[in-house]
Each structure stands twice: as C-alpha cells, then as structure tokens.
Design brief:
CATH topology of the largest domain in chain A: DNA polymerase, domain 1
Largest sheet of chain A: 5 strands, mixed
Oligomer: heterodimer
Structural class of chain B: alpha+beta
Order of helices and strands of chain B: EHEHEEEHHHHHHEEHHEEEEEHHH
Number of helices of chain A: 5
CATH architecture of the largest domain in chain A: Orthogonal Bundle
Number of domains of chain A: 2
Strand order of the largest sheet of chain A: 2-1-5-3-4
Number of helices of chain B: 13
Strand content of chain A: 5-15%
Shape of chain A: globular
Number of strands of chain A: 5
Structural class of chain A: alpha+beta
Largest sheet of chain B: 5 strands, antiparallel
Largest interface: A-B, 31 and 29 residues
CATH superfamily of the largest domain in chain A: [2Fe-2S]-binding domain
C-alpha cells in the first residue's frame, strides 16, 4: 500500500506493508538518525514526533499514521545549523555515546513546545521514556533547562 | 520487524462501518485506537487492522454529573486535561501519571487499555476501582454498562467497540489511591491494587477495591470491601487490612513472580494507600 507522510517538512511517498512499523519504514528509507531496535517501546531511542507529539516509532503501525507530520532529530537541526536544544546538549556534556540523544532531544523539544518553562520534575517526566545507558541524566536535565532558557531568550529577542 | 500476520488495513468513517468490517473478519480483525496493543501483542491471528482515527472518539467532556472520555484519548492527554485533573481533586490523574513512560502514555489509549484481553493493565485496575462505566457500540447499538459488568460479560461484549468511559462525579469527594509493581516501565504489572472510599467522620463507608495480579486479571475484591466497610480509618485498620489482603487476595504464580509474593506486595500496598489517605484526611495515621 502507498503511504504519504510529511517528514521533516517534505512530502514523502513510500510503499509499505500493512504490518510495517514506523521505525522500519523510516530506517528503510534512509532516516538513519532514528535509532533503536528494542521493538518494545522500552528504550525510546526510536523516538520521533508525530504531529509534534513524541512516540516510540517501533510501536507505531506505519499504516495508522498516514498523512501525519513526522519529525526526526534532523528536522530540528543538524551539524551546520543545530537547534538550541542540540547546542545546550553539547554545552552541558549531555552526550556520551550519543545513541539515545536524538530521542532525548525530540522529547525535550515536544516538552518545550507545550511548556516553555518546565520544572525539573516536568523535564524528568518528559524524558522518562528515553533510556540513557551511559547514565548521563543529570546533564540531560540540566541541558533541557538551559535550552528552555535559551529558547525563551531567543523568542524575546525576536519580539524586540 | 513487521507486526506479524497483518494483511489489510481499513479506515472507516463511522462506527457502523467499523463494526461491519470487524464482524466480517470473524475474529481476525482488530480495532486500533493508538496501535500500542497491536504492536506489542504481535498476534498472528490478527489479519486486518481497523483504524478509528476517522471516527473521532477523542473528546473529554463534562456532562451534568459525569466526565466522559472518548476511547481514543491517549493517557497523557487525559492526564493533562483540565477536566480530568479536576476530577477527584486530581487523585485519578495523579495515579495515572505513574503508569509507564511519556512515550507510551502518548500512545496508550483509554479504550485500548480496557479491552478484556488486556484487563491486567493499571488503567483497568484504576478505573474499575473508580467505578467507571463503559460505553460500547455493538450489534444492538450503543449501550452503557459498568466496567465490572463489562468484564463479567466478557463473551457478550467481545465483538463490540469501546466508545468511551464515564466517570461519576458523585465520587469526587472520595479518597482514591493506587499502588503497582512492575519490572520495567513498559512491562505489564506484576501486581496492582486500587482503592476508592468515602469516610464519614473517621469511618470508612462506601468502598471499592480492584486488584490485578498478573495471570489473574483485574477484578473487584469484594471480600476486601466488606472487610473495610464500617471500620475506622486508623493505623489499626491499615495494619489489619494489609494482613487481610496478604492472606485473601486471589493471586497466581507465573514465571515472573510467585502468587505468595504478589499477595505480600498487595498487602503492603493496601496498607500504604490507607495510611496515605489517613494522612491527607488528618486521621492521625
């Protein structure tokens, strides 16, 4: 069956099987920034945003989200033009092996869209599905706090 | 890794159409709200998926004396909804916040968590104790039954589609608490227990208890309700009830945990819920 998605702002058409998971559709079509292969929704490395809400793409039937807006971490920023959250992660040393980082950043982004000034508890709750086996949680939480501040400042600058 | 067995997908515009497709596939089709259950179960017997996203069922509304929640409402949407947060002073949403992870709560729908095959879920336990009603759409049209009845009439409701749940505001002033034990955030619970009760003075009057113990699916714990009714909310009751649950709850062994350990945990949890309510009520616990 043909499936149409809007991935990182571009319309994409793929031939998928009815039982395909979104993670596999993305990986098979070159979106290698989407990590993960637990296929239990456990690790969160496969996180993508579907209409700006974070999901474990390994648990999402691809046929069920046809027409949706899908954002991978490259949709936020890349090495030449990193998003403020990505900059904050680098600044705070919140990246060790980097495997969980795309998912962490997308979960953080969704949180900050919803709540530009989250509490530490809110941040921990928003990231609770993104496991980091390097155990860098303290730096990640600090990075999200800093990113929130940077994003608020940027918005104020834009207004001024 | 494909979800095994799936050969067809449907996206009906009405519940009538969804029901017709469901019945035409004679047990080989599944209704999909968020898709989590389908992806997790990987059930070879399911050949067709019926996605309900064209039908709606995503509203949370207040209607007179009740809160209505559509079956496709994801758990996180419910947790963050003002209407649900106000219900029971936020006790119910407070409990649901502890279920699984943010990513899963974004996908897990209320309807999906209640289907009889998955009635061991924390949400089923919480809503059974909260005496939720279920609105279902079946061959005879729409009907509304208690969640307790829904599980009691498993075979009769099997072919129906869950439209939503209703929470009665009469219970808004009740105490509510749930405790659970899981191995990982996304694992099915090893044991869970939820208690809702009303006190008059310091005496427990109306009470409902639901517990899920792995293989033994979530069900009301009537004997426990009888035990608590009429007792004072104090340390003595909390201790005695804890021991009663440990001795009398129906809990089975499986490869993950023994029934004896399940009962022990449930007893500890039951005492904890009463003590916490007592502290809140100023009952001296």
């Amino acid at each position: 069956m043909e499936a149409v998605y809007r991935i990182n702002g571009k319309e994409k058409r793929f031939d998928i099987s009815p039982g395909d998971r979104l993670l596999d559709v993305l990986k098979d079509n070159g979106y290698m920034e989407v990590k993960g292969d637990c296929y239990e929704g456990l690790c969160g490395a496969c996180t993508v945003l579907i209409d700006n809400i974070p999901y474990a793409s390994c648990m999402v039937p691809a046929a069920g989200v046809c027409g949706a807006k899908i954002t991978t971490v490259k949709g936020l920023g890349d090495i030449t033009n990193p998003h403020l959250i990505q900059q904050a992660f680098v600044k705070y040393g919140a990246v060790q092996c980097g495997y969980c980082t795309p998912g962490q950043i997308l979960s953080a982004y969704a949180l900050l869209l919803r709540d530009p000034d989250p509490s530490e508890e809110d941040i921990r709750m928003a990231l609770d599905g993104n496991l980091c086996r390097c155990s860098g949680y303290a730096q990640q939480v600090a990075a999200v706090k800093m990113a929130a501040e940077m994003m608020r400042e940027a918005e104020n600058d834009d207004r001024a | 890794m494909r979800i095994s067995g799936i050969e067809e997908c449907y996206r009906p515009d009405t519940l009538e159409e969804a029901l017709r497709i469901l019945h035409a596939h004679e047990g080989e089709a599944a209704v999909v709200g968020g898709g989590l259950g389908i992806a997790a179960a990987n059930d070879d017997n399911v050949k067709a998926l019926i996605f309900l996203d064209g039908i709606g069922l995503k509203d949370i509304t207040e209607n007179g004396n009740e809160v209505r929640i559509g079956s496709r409402v994801p758990l996180n949407e419910l947790i963050h909804s003002g209407t649900a947060k106000n219900y029971m002073g936020g006790q119910l949403t407070g409990v649901l916040k502890g279920v699984s992870t943010e990513l899963i709560r974004n996908q897990m729908t209320i309807g999906g968590a209640l289907i009889p095959d998955r009635r061991f879920s924390d949400i089923a336990t919480a809503l059974l104790a909260a005496r939720a009603d279920v609105v279902i759409f079946g061959e005879n049209g729409q009907s509304r039954i208690s969640l307790d009845d829904f599980y009691g009439r498993f075979e009769a409701v099997k072919g129906a589609i869950i439209k939503g749940i209703c929470l009665n505001k009469d219970y808004s002033s009740y105490n509510f608490g749930m405790e659970r034990f899981v191995r990982t955030a996304t694992d099915s619970p090893l044991v869970n227990i939820a208690i809702m009760f009303k006190t008059e003075g310091n005496v427990i009057r109306d009470v409902s208890i639901a517990a899920g113990c792995g293989k033994s699916p979530t069900e009301r714990f009537g004997e426990g309700e009888d035990f608590l009714r009429g007792r004072s909310l104090d340390e003595k009751t909390a201790g005695e009830f804890s021991a009663y649950v440990e001795q009398n709850l129906n809990a089975s062994d499986d490869y993950r945990i023994s029934g004896e350990y399940r009962r022990h945990l449930a007893g500890v949890f039951a005492g904890r819920i009463l003590r916490r309510a007592g502290v809140k009520d100023g009952s001296g616990l």
